[in-house]
Design goal:
Blueprint: H1 2-12, H2 14-32, H3 37-46, H4 52-66, H5 73-81, H6 84-109, H7 111-117, H8 121-128, H9 132-140, H10 146-156, H11 160-185, H12 191-194, H13 197-226
Length: about 230
Amino acid sequence: MFKTRFLNQLKKFRKLLLLIILVAIGFILQLSGVLDVEVLLIFAREYADQWWLVVILILLQLILFTFALAGSLIFWVAATIYPPVTATLIVAIGACLGGVGAYFFSSYLSEEWVKKVETSHAYRFLHKEDNFFTLFALRVFPGFPHSLVNYSSGILRVRLSHFIAAAFLGVGLKSYIYADIIYNLSSSATITSLLNVSTIAPLVLLSLFTFAGVFVKYKLTHKNKGA
C-alpha cells in the first residue's frame, strides 16, 4: 500500500524531479569544469574564418541553455576570437534562443506543479506585473546564473515578449562590456579581469537601480489600488 502510494506520488512529480536534476547537473558541470572551454577555443581558433562557426556557437548555446548546462562558456570562445560587437551578437542571439528553449522546456516539465502555486503572491507578482525590468535586472547582474532565470521564467509563465527582450538587451549589454575586455587582453584574460570593480560596478548599480524602480512601481500601484 505504502509502496503504491509512493510510486503514484513519484509519477505525479516526475517532471518536476527531472527539472531539478537537470538544473543540478548544469551547476555541477559548470563548477567542475567538465565542459572545458580550452578545447572549444582550440577548435574555434582553427576555424575562426569560417562563417558556419558562428552558427555552431549559437546552436551550442541553444542546446546548453535549454538543458540548464553551462551555455555561458561559449561567451569566452566568441569574445576571444571575434571583435566585441560580433561576439556580443553571437552571445545575445544564442542566449535568447537557448533561453526560449529552456523557458518552454521548464514550462512543460513543471505544468502540474504550477497549478498548485498559481494563487501564491510570488506567482501573481512575477506573472502579472510588468516583469521586463525584473528580468533585465537579473540578466545584467554580474555572475547571476542565466539558467536560473530561464527555468524560473518558464515555470512562472512570465510574459514571453518581456522575457526575450530582457534576455537580448541584458545579455547583450553585459556581454559587450566583458567582450571588449577579453578581446583586448586576448588569451591573457581571466575571470579576475572581468570581476574588476570598475567593470562590475556599473552593472551592479544598473541592476540595483532597476530593481528599486520595480519595487517602487509595485508599491505605488498597490497603494493606489487600495485607496
